[in-house]
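Whether sequence alone determines local backbone shape is best considered at the level of individual chains. For completeness, the protein is quoted in full, as a sequence line and a line of structure tokens:
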Amino acid sequence: MPPLTPGDTTLFPEVYTSGFVGYASPWLDLCSPDHVIASISRQVLNLEVNYANFCGVRSIIIPGPRQDSAQAGSGRGIAQYARAIQEALLIGTRMNLIVHLPMYREPGLEEKVAQLSISKEAPAKTQTSEEIDIFTTWDSWHTIRTVCEYDAKLFVGKCFSKQF
């Protein structure tokens, strides 16, 4: 990935940037089964974290995985995601990383963000309201923080459903 240029951003190291909270690109797909897409997403995340760290930003919010390991059928995507977060923690030495996760996955309330690519895997089966497992996002978060060895700079940002 090429480095950021002045045309890419107007953020530069200043005194006031320590009060900013950054948000990583929402189209990143760190869990992609396509290794090229996952690699590009990881490189972009590392570039964004490195630049935010250079500018003095203290926290950056990273979009969480789009599917939990229980829904996808294997934990490989979550493990890939966790390793990417672990790598970003090593790059962002002076900043907190906040993984943005929903309280639980509810059909119809998924984020409608354009991703880097469409997954080649078969779409996950839709769940009815009786089949909603409220602990799948907790399991994903637990995997992420375990791989990152419970780093003190890693936090979770919970998104509550419309019912709350």
